[in-house]
Amino acid sequence: MSVTLSKYTEHARNFNYMSGIERDRLRQKETAEVFTPTCFVQQILDEEEINSPDMFTNENKTYMDNSCGDGQFLSEIIIRKMKRSGCALVQALSTTYGVELMEDNVKLCKERLAGPNPTQEILDILDKNIVCHDALTYDYSFGELIGIEQFIGEKLI
Length: 157
Ligand SMILES: C[S@@+](CC[C@H](N)C(=O)[O-])C[C@H]1O[C@@H](n2cnc3c(N)ncnc32)[C@H](O)[C@@H]1O
Known about the structure:
single chain, mainly alpha, 3-stranded parallel β-sheet, 8 helices, 3 strands, binds S-adenosylmethionine
């Protein structure tokens, strides 16, 4: 059975801000690990939605955070997409991407985005769409031929 929006929202927002990882000052300084507080995430997305009222109503629209941390933005994007478009979690996750340098943040992000009692399908989507990599050198293929290889393929065809 698929997860309800309210259960998902409860799970995604039940992560205490900047918790779960020992982040010393040097690490924070080196990686700029200061996450966006939830109230600011809401405010920013509210303002974006005023400018683009349909930004979450199209279930096929894709979003990416290339320094996604523990998913402060991505989780709210998924919640809004499910709320506005009425799509299921699998669809919202399939169109949401993240890149993050620190492995422990990636793990937290996946746990958050997975929701409670995730299916294997959900875990597989997250393994593909949330990657641990340096955003400056990643090819943004997310396991599919959507990067340079496909571009070359198209040119050859
Ligand atoms: C300012 S935080 C923002 C996190 C999240 N987007 C948010 O708004 O809460 C920056 C994040 O980028 C990550 N980061 C730093 N350098 C990176 C790089 N070269 N590639 C990918 N992620 C990086 C950090 O580990 C940290 O989680």
